[in-house]
Fold:
Amino acid sequence: MQKFSIKSKIAIWFAVVLILVCAVTFYFITAISGSAAERDTRSALIRTVEENASEIKYDDGKLHIENKFRAYKNRISTLIYAEDGTEISSHFPYDEFLDDIEFEDGSINKVRYDGETYLVYDMLVKIRRHPDVWVRGVTATQGGSLIVSSVKKTALIAFPLLILLATAGGYLLAKHLLRPINQISRIAEKIGSSGDLSKRIIIEGNQGDELYQLAQTFNRMFDRLETNFEAERQFTSDASHELRTPVTVILAQCEYAFENASGEEELYEAIGTIQRHSYRMAHLIESLLSFTRMEQNTESANFDEVNISELVSSTCEEQSMIAQKEIILSADIVPEIRMRAERQMFTRMLINLIQNVYRYGKENGTIHVCLKKEASSIVLSVADDGIGIAAEDLPKIWKRFYRADKSRSGSSGLGLGLAMVKQIAEYHGGNVQVQSTLGAGSIFTVVFPIHS
Ligand code: ADP
Structure:
């Protein structure tokens, strides 16, 4: 069945079901019309015998048969026998086989003779003060089978025609209904070969039907693919762009050092610049790798039950020690909060949030880190009283390589920190939000739902 098209499968299914229906109908028609025909024959036989019996009289002690007696009527032969079974009158051509049949008043016998089935009906006619007479009616059941055979003939012609018609109809209907599928696969094929994800499937037809919905599902899938593909392309182009700057600087510094550097001091200066830009490249490459690993889910094996209260507390301590600005870090951490986490990533998320405050916070400002457990979640927040973020920038700060105001971050920010925070939070089943007022400060809140 595999190698057949859907159209052929539907047509075959139609044909098989119809053949079955026709066979069953044919069987019932023959059975019912056969038995109905026999029933009619039986009642005609009884009626004829009774009518003829009423025509038998005695006249002056002699048997007299009235004019209305019909020895052969409606394919029924009527025979008259004396009480002892001697034949008195017969028009039946094969009456010798009838001699072997016992007389039985009021019953119909079915007898086979010479390949034919006969019905034989006996009636004992009693006439007062005279000997009784047997009246026997005989008829072949052929009359009934004639009807049956004509029904059979009609059915044998009509049924194959009906099956042929329905199968062809089913095939054509399936072909018509499946036409949009061909359309869908042609367009999908075109999109696949041209790589043009902006193309969409347009099919004519009923908006409510399944094929229209299938086309819509494909279109939504293409929308998502296009968006993701576009984002990936943008990401690759941004990443290359970000890498190109340090590489250009490094190459320029190398050339300068080789060709122009006159003394040790200038050489040191060139090496210092090269080192700074190499660090930046290393940082960028490390971040890109982290994104890729998270997207490919290759780090899920490192998930552990972690005491995040301790983790947050030690990270805050380290960060405040290496701080480059006079900003006071305070922490309000509920002890012994545990959750399943990837230790390194979780630390990276917190470091990114804290370092942003050191980068965008005001001198002598504050950072407040808070970790607490609520009814159904663990909440980590990092609040500052720094420069804040403009309302129009808020939705964009989660995008990779987005820097709200390049002049504020100088050259040090890559625009990847918050994108990574968001991805790590989601990787842990949580989400991150921000509230910020320009010039007054920001609060970043990461919420992890607790699964009981
Ligand atoms: P960057 O490497 O530029 O810091 P991020 O993704 O960490 O990249 O941040 C994106 C932008 O969000 C930054 O350019 C900065 O303008 C803004 N930002 C992030 N954190 C803060 C903060 N705590 N206060 C003010 N602005 C912030």
